[in-house]
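Posted in: Structural Biology > Protein-Ligand Complexes

Title: Requesting predicted complex, magnesium ion in pocket

I'd be grateful if someone could produce the C-alpha coordinates for the following input. Sequence and ligand are given below.
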Amino acid sequence: MGAGKAAAGQRAGFVAIIGRPNVGKSTLLNRILGEKVAIVSPRPQTTRTRILGVYNGPGVQLAFFDTPGLHRAKGALNRRMVEVALQTLREVDAVLLLVEAGAGPGGQVEVGEATRWAVAEVARSKKPAVLGVNKMDQVPRPMLLPVIAAYKDLHDWAAIVPFSALTGENVEDLLATLARLVPEADAPLFPPDLLTDQAERTLAAEYVREQVMRLTRQEIPYSVAVEVEEFDESSRGEGRGIVHVGAVIYVERESQKGIVIGKRGAMLKQVGTQARQGLERLLGCKVFLRLTVKVEERWSERAEALRKLGL
Ligand code: GDP
Ligand code: MG
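-- Reply #1 --
Done. Output follows.
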Protein backbone atom coordinates (compact mmCIF):
# COMPACT_ATOMS: atom_id res chain seq x y z
CA MET A 1 0.00 0.00 0.00
CA GLY A 2 1.47 3.37 -1.03
CA ALA A 3 1.77 6.12 1.56
CA GLY A 4 -1.36 8.25 1.85
CA LYS A 5 -3.39 6.00 -0.37
CA ALA A 6 -6.37 4.00 0.77
CA ALA A 7 -5.88 0.27 1.02
CA ALA A 8 -7.73 -1.39 -1.84
CA GLY A 9 -11.37 -1.71 -0.94
CA GLN A 10 -11.09 0.11 2.40
CA ARG A 11 -13.96 2.44 3.07
CA ALA A 12 -15.24 4.38 6.06
CA GLY A 13 -17.97 6.92 6.58
CA PHE A 14 -20.92 8.27 8.49
CA VAL A 15 -24.48 7.19 7.75
CA ALA A 16 -27.61 8.85 9.16
CA ILE A 17 -30.59 6.60 9.82
CA ILE A 18 -33.63 8.82 9.54
CA GLY A 19 -37.36 8.38 9.11
CA ARG A 20 -40.72 8.77 10.78
CA PRO A 21 -41.18 7.67 14.38
CA ASN A 22 -41.56 3.91 14.84
CA VAL A 23 -40.28 2.72 11.46
CA GLY A 24 -37.57 0.70 13.22
CA LYS A 25 -34.48 2.91 13.12
CA SER A 26 -33.25 1.92 16.56
CA THR A 27 -34.11 -1.74 16.07
CA LEU A 28 -31.99 -1.70 12.92
CA LEU A 29 -29.01 -0.11 14.66
CA ASN A 30 -29.16 -2.70 17.43
CA ARG A 31 -29.43 -5.48 14.87
CA ILE A 32 -26.38 -4.20 12.97
CA LEU A 33 -24.32 -3.90 16.14
CA GLY A 34 -25.62 -7.05 17.84
CA GLU A 35 -26.05 -5.07 21.08
CA LYS A 36 -28.82 -2.89 22.40
CA VAL A 37 -27.31 0.60 22.29
CA ALA A 38 -30.59 2.28 21.37
CA ILE A 39 -33.76 1.59 23.29
CA VAL A 40 -36.84 0.45 21.41
CA SER A 41 -40.54 0.59 22.21
CA PRO A 42 -43.81 0.35 20.33
CA ARG A 43 -44.32 4.07 21.02
CA PRO A 44 -43.20 6.93 18.79
CA GLN A 45 -40.55 9.35 20.06
CA THR A 46 -38.67 6.70 22.02
CA THR A 47 -35.30 7.93 20.76
CA ARG A 48 -34.60 11.43 22.05
CA THR A 49 -31.00 12.08 21.07
CA ARG A 50 -28.76 10.88 18.31
CA ILE A 51 -26.83 7.74 19.00
CA LEU A 52 -23.60 6.68 17.37
CA GLY A 53 -23.18 3.00 16.57
CA VAL A 54 -20.06 1.78 14.77
CA TYR A 55 -20.20 -1.24 12.49
CA ASN A 56 -17.00 -2.91 11.33
CA GLY A 57 -17.38 -5.16 8.31
CA PRO A 58 -14.96 -6.64 5.82
CA GLY A 59 -13.11 -3.63 4.37
CA VAL A 60 -15.56 -1.12 5.72
CA GLN A 61 -16.43 0.86 8.79
CA LEU A 62 -19.87 2.44 8.89
CA ALA A 63 -20.51 4.93 11.67
CA PHE A 64 -24.28 5.10 12.01
CA PHE A 65 -26.28 7.82 13.68
CA ASP A 66 -29.65 6.67 14.93
CA THR A 67 -31.87 9.75 15.17
CA PRO A 68 -35.18 10.80 16.72
CA GLY A 69 -38.15 10.35 14.38
CA LEU A 70 -39.10 13.08 11.93
CA HIS A 71 -42.58 14.37 12.73
CA ARG A 72 -44.53 17.58 13.02
CA ALA A 73 -43.11 18.62 16.33
CA LYS A 74 -44.99 20.31 19.14
CA GLY A 75 -43.27 21.29 22.34
CA ALA A 76 -39.66 22.13 23.16
CA LEU A 77 -38.41 18.56 23.49
CA ASN A 78 -39.99 17.42 20.24
CA ARG A 79 -38.72 20.39 18.29
CA ARG A 80 -35.25 19.76 19.63
CA MET A 81 -35.48 16.10 18.59
CA VAL A 82 -36.44 16.92 15.00
CA GLU A 83 -33.63 19.50 14.81
CA VAL A 84 -31.16 16.83 15.87
CA ALA A 85 -32.31 14.51 13.09
CA LEU A 86 -32.12 17.22 10.42
CA GLN A 87 -28.74 18.44 11.63
CA THR A 88 -27.37 14.90 11.43
CA LEU A 89 -28.44 14.69 7.80
CA ARG A 90 -26.04 17.54 7.03
CA GLU A 91 -23.06 15.89 8.71
CA VAL A 92 -22.93 12.46 7.12
CA ASP A 93 -21.60 10.82 3.95
CA ALA A 94 -24.78 8.89 3.18
CA VAL A 95 -28.37 8.69 4.30
CA LEU A 96 -30.58 5.73 5.04
CA LEU A 97 -34.22 6.80 4.98
CA LEU A 98 -36.46 4.17 6.49
CA VAL A 99 -40.09 3.52 5.72
CA GLU A 100 -42.32 0.60 6.63
CA ALA A 101 -43.53 -2.07 4.26
CA GLY A 102 -47.31 -2.24 4.23
CA ALA A 103 -50.21 -1.22 2.08
CA GLY A 104 -53.91 -0.51 2.46
CA PRO A 105 -56.58 -3.19 2.12
CA GLY A 106 -56.77 -2.75 -1.67
CA GLY A 107 -53.00 -2.93 -2.01
CA GLN A 108 -52.74 0.83 -2.46
CA VAL A 109 -49.74 2.51 -0.86
CA GLU A 110 -50.06 5.98 0.60
CA VAL A 111 -46.84 7.92 0.98
CA GLY A 112 -47.67 10.11 3.94
CA GLU A 113 -47.05 13.83 4.17
CA ALA A 114 -44.36 13.38 6.82
CA THR A 115 -42.46 10.93 4.65
CA ARG A 116 -42.67 13.28 1.65
CA TRP A 117 -41.24 16.00 3.80
CA ALA A 118 -38.42 13.66 4.91
CA VAL A 119 -37.69 12.82 1.27
CA ALA A 120 -37.54 16.54 0.45
CA GLU A 121 -35.04 17.04 3.28
CA VAL A 122 -32.95 14.17 1.94
CA ALA A 123 -33.00 15.76 -1.53
CA ARG A 124 -31.99 19.11 -0.05
CA SER A 125 -29.03 17.48 1.71
CA LYS A 126 -27.72 16.24 -1.67
CA LYS A 127 -26.33 13.18 0.09
CA PRO A 128 -26.45 9.76 -1.57
CA ALA A 129 -29.49 8.07 -0.12
CA VAL A 130 -30.78 4.55 0.25
CA LEU A 131 -34.45 3.90 0.89
CA GLY A 132 -34.78 1.06 3.39
CA VAL A 133 -38.20 -0.61 3.42
CA ASN A 134 -38.32 -2.15 6.88
CA LYS A 135 -40.64 -4.74 8.43
CA MET A 136 -40.72 -6.95 5.34
CA ASP A 137 -41.54 -9.79 7.76
CA GLN A 138 -44.99 -8.22 8.16
CA VAL A 139 -46.12 -8.37 4.56
CA PRO A 140 -46.38 -11.08 1.93
CA ARG A 141 -43.56 -10.70 -0.56
CA PRO A 142 -45.71 -9.62 -3.55
CA MET A 143 -46.93 -6.69 -1.46
CA LEU A 144 -43.41 -5.23 -1.46
CA LEU A 145 -43.60 -4.36 -5.15
CA PRO A 146 -46.32 -1.70 -4.88
CA VAL A 147 -44.49 -0.24 -1.89
CA ILE A 148 -41.26 0.05 -3.83
CA ALA A 149 -43.14 1.46 -6.83
CA ALA A 150 -44.72 4.15 -4.67
CA TYR A 151 -41.34 5.44 -3.48
CA LYS A 152 -39.28 4.87 -6.59
CA ASP A 153 -40.01 8.12 -8.38
CA LEU A 154 -39.97 10.35 -5.31
CA HIS A 155 -36.20 10.64 -5.35
CA ASP A 156 -33.09 9.52 -7.18
CA TRP A 157 -32.30 6.74 -4.70
CA ALA A 158 -28.90 5.05 -4.76
CA ALA A 159 -30.89 1.88 -4.02
CA ILE A 160 -34.14 0.65 -2.52
CA VAL A 161 -33.67 -2.26 -0.13
CA PRO A 162 -36.48 -4.13 1.62
CA PHE A 163 -35.36 -5.74 4.88
CA SER A 164 -36.44 -6.71 8.37
CA ALA A 165 -34.64 -5.27 11.36
CA LEU A 166 -36.53 -7.74 13.52
CA THR A 167 -35.51 -10.96 11.75
CA GLY A 168 -32.31 -9.63 10.15
CA GLU A 169 -33.47 -10.58 6.66
CA ASN A 170 -31.57 -8.60 3.97
CA VAL A 171 -29.69 -6.54 6.55
CA GLU A 172 -26.40 -7.80 5.07
CA ASP A 173 -27.51 -6.50 1.65
CA LEU A 174 -28.39 -3.18 3.19
CA LEU A 175 -24.92 -2.92 4.76
CA ALA A 176 -23.21 -3.87 1.49
CA THR A 177 -25.24 -1.22 -0.34
CA LEU A 178 -24.35 1.47 2.19
CA ALA A 179 -20.68 0.47 2.14
CA ARG A 180 -20.50 1.44 -1.52
CA LEU A 181 -21.69 4.97 -0.70
CA VAL A 182 -19.04 5.97 1.83
CA PRO A 183 -15.60 7.28 0.83
CA GLU A 184 -12.40 5.32 0.52
CA ALA A 185 -10.30 5.76 3.62
CA ASP A 186 -6.76 5.19 4.81
CA ALA A 187 -7.87 4.44 8.31
CA PRO A 188 -11.09 3.71 10.13
CA LEU A 189 -12.88 6.64 11.79
CA PHE A 190 -13.03 4.94 15.18
CA PRO A 191 -11.01 2.25 16.92
CA PRO A 192 -12.50 -1.14 15.99
CA ASP A 193 -13.54 -1.90 19.57
CA LEU A 194 -15.64 1.25 19.91
CA LEU A 195 -19.27 0.25 19.56
CA THR A 196 -21.11 3.39 20.60
CA ASP A 197 -20.70 6.84 22.09
CA GLN A 198 -23.24 5.98 24.75
CA ALA A 199 -21.56 5.68 28.14
CA GLU A 200 -22.69 2.74 30.27
CA ARG A 201 -24.15 5.25 32.68
CA THR A 202 -26.26 6.79 29.90
CA LEU A 203 -27.34 3.38 28.71
CA ALA A 204 -28.43 2.55 32.26
CA ALA A 205 -30.72 5.59 32.26
CA GLU A 206 -32.03 4.66 28.82
CA TYR A 207 -32.75 1.06 29.82
CA VAL A 208 -34.88 2.35 32.70
CA ARG A 209 -36.71 4.81 30.44
CA GLU A 210 -37.34 2.04 27.92
CA GLN A 211 -39.20 0.01 30.50
CA VAL A 212 -41.27 2.98 31.64
CA MET A 213 -42.16 3.65 27.99
CA ARG A 214 -43.14 0.05 27.45
CA LEU A 215 -45.09 -0.45 30.65
CA THR A 216 -47.03 2.81 31.05
CA ARG A 217 -49.82 4.31 28.98
CA GLN A 218 -51.12 7.56 27.57
CA GLU A 219 -49.01 10.61 28.25
CA ILE A 220 -46.73 8.99 30.82
CA PRO A 221 -44.12 7.63 28.36
CA TYR A 222 -43.59 11.17 27.06
CA SER A 223 -43.50 12.76 30.49
CA VAL A 224 -40.62 10.68 31.74
CA ALA A 225 -36.92 11.41 31.87
CA VAL A 226 -34.33 9.36 33.70
CA GLU A 227 -31.11 10.48 35.30
CA VAL A 228 -28.52 8.15 36.77
CA GLU A 229 -27.19 9.65 39.99
CA GLU A 230 -25.02 6.75 41.05
CA PHE A 231 -23.03 4.33 38.92
CA ASP A 232 -20.67 2.56 41.25
CA GLU A 233 -18.37 -0.02 39.69
CA SER A 234 -16.01 -0.35 42.64
CA SER A 235 -17.09 -3.95 43.21
CA ARG A 236 -17.18 -4.88 39.54
CA GLY A 237 -14.75 -7.62 38.55
CA GLU A 238 -13.91 -9.40 35.31
CA GLY A 239 -17.15 -11.12 34.33
CA ARG A 240 -18.53 -11.03 37.88
CA GLY A 241 -19.01 -8.64 40.79
CA ILE A 242 -21.75 -6.07 40.96
CA VAL A 243 -22.51 -2.58 39.69
CA HIS A 244 -24.66 -0.34 41.87
CA VAL A 245 -26.95 1.95 39.89
CA GLY A 246 -29.14 4.64 41.41
CA ALA A 247 -31.55 6.31 39.00
CA VAL A 248 -34.20 9.01 39.32
CA ILE A 249 -37.29 8.82 37.15
CA TYR A 250 -38.61 12.33 36.57
CA VAL A 251 -42.26 12.88 35.80
CA GLU A 252 -44.06 16.16 35.24
CA ARG A 253 -46.93 15.90 37.70
CA GLU A 254 -47.75 14.41 41.09
CA SER A 255 -50.48 12.22 39.55
CA GLN A 256 -47.94 10.70 37.15
CA LYS A 257 -45.70 9.85 40.04
CA GLY A 258 -48.41 7.67 41.51
CA ILE A 259 -48.84 5.83 38.22
CA VAL A 260 -45.13 5.18 37.76
CA ILE A 261 -44.86 3.85 41.31
CA GLY A 262 -48.05 1.82 40.95
CA LYS A 263 -50.15 0.01 43.51
CA ARG A 264 -47.89 -0.80 46.43
CA GLY A 265 -44.93 -0.09 44.18
CA ALA A 266 -45.85 -2.77 41.66
CA MET A 267 -45.13 -0.71 38.55
CA LEU A 268 -41.80 0.58 39.78
CA LYS A 269 -40.84 -2.94 40.74
CA GLN A 270 -41.62 -4.25 37.27
CA VAL A 271 -39.70 -1.41 35.61
CA GLY A 272 -36.76 -2.09 37.90
CA THR A 273 -36.71 -5.85 37.33
CA GLN A 274 -36.83 -5.60 33.55
CA ALA A 275 -34.30 -2.77 33.33
CA ARG A 276 -31.95 -4.61 35.68
CA GLN A 277 -32.11 -7.79 33.60
CA GLY A 278 -31.27 -5.85 30.44
CA LEU A 279 -28.41 -4.06 32.18
CA GLU A 280 -26.98 -7.30 33.52
CA ARG A 281 -26.84 -8.64 29.96
CA LEU A 282 -25.26 -5.43 28.71
CA LEU A 283 -22.66 -5.09 31.46
CA GLY A 284 -22.02 -8.79 31.89
CA CYS A 285 -22.26 -8.68 35.67
CA LYS A 286 -24.81 -8.40 38.44
CA VAL A 287 -26.58 -5.07 38.81
CA PHE A 288 -28.17 -3.58 41.88
CA LEU A 289 -30.68 -1.02 40.67
CA ARG A 290 -32.29 1.52 42.97
CA LEU A 291 -35.07 3.65 41.49
CA THR A 292 -36.73 6.76 42.85
CA VAL A 293 -39.48 8.88 41.27
CA LYS A 294 -39.47 12.68 41.43
CA VAL A 295 -41.71 15.39 40.07
CA GLU A 296 -39.94 18.00 37.95
CA GLU A 297 -42.75 20.19 36.72
CA ARG A 298 -43.05 20.58 32.95
CA TRP A 299 -39.43 19.53 32.41
CA SER A 300 -40.07 18.75 28.74
CA GLU A 301 -41.03 22.39 28.10
CA ARG A 302 -38.14 23.98 29.95
CA ALA A 303 -34.86 24.58 28.14
CA GLU A 304 -32.91 24.52 31.38
CA ALA A 305 -34.42 21.19 32.44
CA LEU A 306 -33.69 19.71 29.00
CA ARG A 307 -30.08 20.79 29.33
CA LYS A 308 -29.80 19.30 32.76
CA LEU A 309 -31.10 15.99 31.44
CA GLY A 310 -28.65 16.06 28.56
CA LEU A 311 -31.32 16.60 25.90
P1 GDP B 1 -37.83 3.96 15.71
O1 GDP B 1 -38.78 4.89 16.38
O2 GDP B 1 -37.79 4.20 14.24
O3 GDP B 1 -36.48 3.92 16.33
O4 GDP B 1 -38.48 2.50 15.87
P2 GDP B 1 -38.12 1.35 16.94
O5 GDP B 1 -36.83 0.70 16.57
O6 GDP B 1 -38.25 1.91 18.32
O7 GDP B 1 -39.28 0.30 16.63
C1 GDP B 1 -40.64 0.65 16.73
C2 GDP B 1 -41.45 -0.61 16.80
O8 GDP B 1 -41.36 -1.34 15.55
C3 GDP B 1 -41.00 -1.57 17.89
O9 GDP B 1 -42.13 -2.14 18.48
C4 GDP B 1 -40.18 -2.61 17.12
O10 GDP B 1 -40.17 -3.87 17.74
C5 GDP B 1 -40.95 -2.68 15.79
N1 GDP B 1 -40.09 -3.12 14.67
C6 GDP B 1 -38.90 -2.62 14.29
N2 GDP B 1 -38.40 -3.27 13.23
C7 GDP B 1 -39.30 -4.24 12.90
C8 GDP B 1 -39.36 -5.24 11.87
O11 GDP B 1 -38.47 -5.43 11.04
N3 GDP B 1 -40.49 -6.02 11.86
C9 GDP B 1 -41.48 -5.87 12.76
N4 GDP B 1 -42.52 -6.69 12.67
N5 GDP B 1 -41.46 -4.94 13.73
C10 GDP B 1 -40.39 -4.13 13.81
MG1 MG C 1 -35.69 5.05 17.80
